[in-house]
Amino acid sequence: MNNKDIIALVEGRLSDERKAEVVKWLLKNPKQQQRYHVLKALHVAKMLKENEHGNSGRPTTFAKWYKYVGYAACVVLMFALAYTLTSPEEQLVEETTNITMTTSIGENKTLTLSDGTQVTLNANTTISYPETFSGDLREVSLRGEAFFDVTHNPRKPFMVATGNGMKIQVLGTVFNVKSYPEDLNVETTLVSGKVKVIEEHHKKTVVLTPSQRATYVKDADKLIVDNVETKNLTSWREGKLIYDETPIRQVIGDLKRKYKVDISVESPGIMDYKYTGEFDNLGIEQILDLFEVSSPILYKMNNNQITLYMKK
User: What InterPro entries does its record include (predicted)?
Assistant: First the structure.
């Protein structure tokens, strides 16, 4: 692709197939998009100038008036026309399609973004991202939990917006984000590389190193950093659930998203309990049986309705 291709696009001399190829190339090259807009403006200016003279080649009354009233205004008009008089195909250069992908309860899904970044979505998760990244920032929006392996690009940082009070910015690294609206906390766990975590309310920023987790506590509006075993927090990609003194509220939330069950708590004291254990690709009844063996928690199950209560 080169300047000749852009000129041919501006002048409408490309076949539909070739036009699609050039537009796709422009979408990936913001600097070339700027060149396209300049050439488009010059082309429109040229066409208007040629129309100053009628078919006889003699200036019309309108042309004389146009010359003395508005060449300066014409320059402004030309750049406006570059954006407003484009064909639907050419408008693709300025409009980037946004894609939304969602997983259901019990479903994991892996996708590759246009820059090569790989994202694995946990159950009940929604991610929104542009079909092609343009500009100086690669930004996606996340609701739920996802594991990111970001392609390194020092000129274009990668940003994850959670909508839950936390943003994560990286250049190229591997990390996990857990940001379910119903959870009390938003967590970012760094596996490798470096990430900058931004608490949006107070604009507090922390930089994580590998094996660190940043937790934003929604109710308390504070950011906490601690050291963790990253495999415990990312094992969900392999169907495992690993807990180490984890609040039972979080365990229950994970089970509800992984299995299509409704869990209620009969004994209030259960919510103060912290669970330690590992579930390696087990069914929900096997997990509940392990609860009874490894903790003071008992259960009753009726179809997909589970009730937890404490041993007396």
Answer: FecR (IPR006860), FecR_C (IPR032508), Ferrdict_sens_TM (IPR012373)
Tell me the C-alpha distance between 193 and 149, whole Å.
10
Q: Are 33 and 94 in contact (CB under 8 A)?
A: yes
> Hey, is 62 helix, strand or coil?
helix
Helix, strand or coil, per DSSP, at residue 217: strand
Rounded to whole angstroms, how far apart are CA atoms 175 and 190?
A: 4
CA dihedral 193, 128, 130, 208 (to 10 degrees): -20
102 and 225 housed in the same domain: yes
Asked whether residue 291 falls in the same domain as residue 173, the answer is: no
Quick check: 125 pLDDT over 50?
Answer: yes
Tell me, what amino acid is at 260?
A: K
Spatial CA neighbour of 277 closest among 292, 299, 260: 292
Whether residue 145 is contained in a domain is answered as yes
Q: What's the structural domain count of the chain?
A: 3
pLDDT tens-digit readout, 191-235? 999 999 998 877 889 999 999 999 999 988 889 999 999 999 999
Asked if the model's pLDDT at residue 243 lies above 60, the reply is yes
d(CA 286, CA 258): 14
Nearest partner of 158 among 101, 103, 116, judged by Cα: 116
Packing angle between helix 16-27 and helix 30-50, nearest 10 degrees?
130
Whole-angstrom distance, CA of residue 49 vs CA of residue 53:
8
Q: Which domain does 31 fall in, by range?
A: 3-93
Residue 24 lies in a domain: yes
Rounded to the nearest 10°, the torsion over CA 116, 119, 120, 126 is -140
